[in-house]
Specification:
By secondary structure, the chain is mostly loops. It has no helix or strand.
């Protein structure tokens, strides 16, 4: 239903500065990884928010790994 009521726009080449706010027409793939080593933006730690209610600079709360 959506595709039946959607017009597909054509592609055009424009300079990078003019592309601000535009949608890219195809995927861009890199020939190398950035950074060039395995790295996670998340360290995969989770806590229960209620466990931090009493925390302050004067009264820090410490957590232990459960694995």
């Amino acid at each position: 239903m959506v595709w039946e009521n959607t017009c597909v726009l054509g592609k055009e080449k424009i300079d990078l500065i003019s592309s601000l706010g535009r949608t890219i027409a195809e995927n861009i793939l890199s020939n190398f990884d950035i950074p060039p080593f395995e790295r996670s933006a998340m360290d995969e730690f989770a806590i229960i928010a209620e466990d931090t209610n009493s925390a302050s600079e004067e009264n820090p709360v410490f957590f232990r790994n459960s694995w």
